[in-house]
Amino acid sequence: MDSTDNRETARLVLALTAVVMVGNFYVYDSISPVADLLQRQRHFSDTQIGLLNAVYNWPNVLLIVVGGVLVDRYGAARMTLYTAAVCFVGAALTAFSPNFVGMAVGRLLFGAGAETLNIGVLAAIAQYFAAGRVAFAMGVGLAFGRAGSFAANMSPTWFARAYAQGWQPPLVIATLMASTTLAAALVYYCVDRRYGNAPPSSRAANQPRVARDLLHFGAAYWLLLALCMLWYAVMYAFRSTFSIKYFEHAHGLNLPAAGAMNSYVFLAAIFATPAFGWLCDRLGRDVPMLAFGALLLPLSMVVMAFTHWSLTIGTVLIGLSFSLVPAVIWPLTSKRVSPERFGTALGLMWVLQNVGIGAANFIAGWLNDGAHASAQNPAGYQPMMLCFISASALGFGFALLLWFTTARRT
Q1: What are the chain's domains?
Q2: What is 24-37 written as a DSSP string?
Q3: How confident is the model at residue 205 (pLDDT cuts 50, 70, 90)?
């Protein structure tokens, strides 16, 4: 193919992987809007609700490194298709299971596929945009993922009739979104087989040796990994599991208003993530931008938990952090490791990311239950917020250390 054909193929792949991200992120964020319904209609505790997202992360403690290696070995397109199929089955099981155990198994199965699917998407973008503008392209892909999250959080308003029927119809809608992910992954697989410039046989020849890679990723990579674990643990445990309940009980919002308030985080990210990616490509100041984004997360938690300022201010801060950190951290990682090891590097990072998210979901639910957090006792949410503030502040410390380490070498 000539350069024009390559550009057109890259744009098509970006569009298809964007659709993949929309459906995948919608399904992940489908639990938070129904959390209160599950508590009222199925009598789930906060610990059980937290576990529905925690079990998403647990299989990835072991499987995601394998997933990263498989992406490097067999190619992003093939693994994206396979894992999209697994995600669809997991979403359907969550929606149609008659009890908590069945729902938890569905979420676990969805988690087993979803994180490797995300690695496949980022590896695809890195492959097709290797010649340049990778941060912007990754920002666009992530922006569409945020659009899926925005849609999930707006679903109590957009699909009010479904929510009026109970907890199950909203999760059926999530299953339909998973089917769009599977369809887009199939089309991307066909496009890659016809036009891809890195066939699976050549990738297999470069199969990574994980133990050796661990010794050669470098100090900057490990600092990125530590920041990744802490930042994502706080961000996802809060915004994807407990934020809507917290807004309802601690700030007096009703369900549609709480879902809309949480959705503003994703709405901002839809536009800001690619903008920050473009700025990162343009300025090359990725590490300072990353540190600033990491700082905004603990600041947002402090504003929401300990001030009487408008909830919008805290939401804006968390939205900026949610846009800036992912726009920088993944392109920065792609610059720190060789292309044939990118999937493995992401897999190692997401192992600890999923450990952190799973632990944060469980701990937050346990703290809420222990403090009897509820609409009648909004102060019971303070231990959870203090935990989130501490963990995110530690993540900012790792970002500063990365900045100082990088500055000394330049």
Answers
A1: 3-409 (1.20.1250.20)
A2: HHHHHTTHHHHHHH
A3: very low
